[in-house]
Amino acid sequence: MEFNFIFLAIKLILVRLRLAREKLAKLVYDLREALENLKVLKRIIPICALCKKVRDDAEYWQEVEAYITMNSDAMFTHGMCQECKVKVKEQLRSLQKN
């Protein structure tokens, strides 16, 4: 009777260890994948000096937002800085006068 209890206790411990090892293996895999994704954005990225498009590994040019979205978990929202607001207002006033 006591032997069966010890056997079951050891079996339970082994099952928990196996589950913990599987969970750890998945975490290691996820971390390696995340590190690989970070490396994509750490290298030098060719960017057009005029239109600011980025050249990817396949030699295609694409918008900066599209490139970063595809190569990271980053998402973009757009606004307008104060300097650009002033420029746009000046351009609108100039167009209204003409």
Quick tags:
3 helices, 98 residues, 2 strands, mainly alpha, two-stranded antiparallel sheet, 66% helix, single chain
Could you describe the 3D structure shown?
- With 98 residues, the chain is mostly helical.
- It has 2 domains: 1-42; 44-98, no CATH class.
- It has helices spanning 2-42, 64-71, 82-97, and strands spanning 54-55, 61-62.
- Strands 1-2 form a two-stranded antiparallel sheet.
- Strand 1 (54-55) and strand 2 (61-62) form a beta hairpin.
Radius of gyration: 28 Å
- Report the strand count: 2
The end-to-end span amounts to 100 Å
Average predicted confidence as pLDDT: 88
> Hey, roughly how much beta strand do the residues contain?
under 5%
Approximate helicity band: 55-70%
Biggest beta sheet attributes? 2 strands, antiparallel
| Low-pLDDT segments, ≥5 res | none
Q: Could you state the order of secondary-structure elements as H and E?
A: HEEHH
The geometry reads as: elongated
Number of helices: 3
Secondary-structure-derived class: mainly alpha
The total tally of domains equals 2
- Across the major sheet, the strand order is 1-2
